[in-house]
Write a structure and sequence with these properties.
This protein has about 140 residues and is an alpha+beta fold. Helices cover about 35% and strands about 40% of the residues. Strand 2 and strand 3 form a beta hairpin. InterPro entries: KH_dom-like_a/b, OsmC/Ohr_fam, OsmC/Ohrsf.
């Protein structure tokens, strides 16, 4: 896996993945940025949520659950020091669908957390306290 991050100007950078996708990262105005994109630490959090969501949806599809929406709401706390690393991250999955079986949703979230999500497992190995929860919403 490869990626490139190129400085654009001030506190703005353009990241490009090996697969050819690009994202703008920028800092806040008080740090020389123009607030035109997410911060790098936000990108880490988003990557972790994307990784876990991919796992959960993949498993729910394989178990033939009728999912109409899946949202991963993340909340992170950072230490009050430099470097301001993540201390705690909570991932809350809100899964909407028709007649979803709680056992399948619970197991998908557990397997992502314990076995498949490289990003959250890597964070835990680095000392971040990572927790997960889920809510099931019946589709209307």
């Amino acid at each position: 896996m490869k990626a490139t991050v190129k400085w654009v100007d001030d506190a703005m950078f353009l990241g490009e993945s090996g697969s050819g996708h690009a994202v703008v990262m920028d800092g806040p105005p008080d740090h020389g940025g123009r607030n035109m994109g997410p911060r790098p630490m936000e990108m880490l959090l988003l990557g972790m949520g994307g990784c876990a969501s991919f796992d959960v949806m993949s498993m729910l599809k394989k178990s033939r659950q009728q999912v109409s929406d899946c949202r991963c709401e993340m909340e992170a706390e950072r230490v009050d020091a430099v470097p301001a690393v993540f201390e705690k991250i909570h991932l809350r999955f809100v899964v909407t669908g028709t007649k979803l079986k709680e056992a399948h949703v619970k197991r998908a979230v557990e397997l992502s957390a314990e076995k498949y999500c490289s990003a959250s497992i890597m964070m835990e190995k680095a000392g971040v306290v990572v927790s997960h929860s889920y809510e099931i919403v019946e589709a209307e």
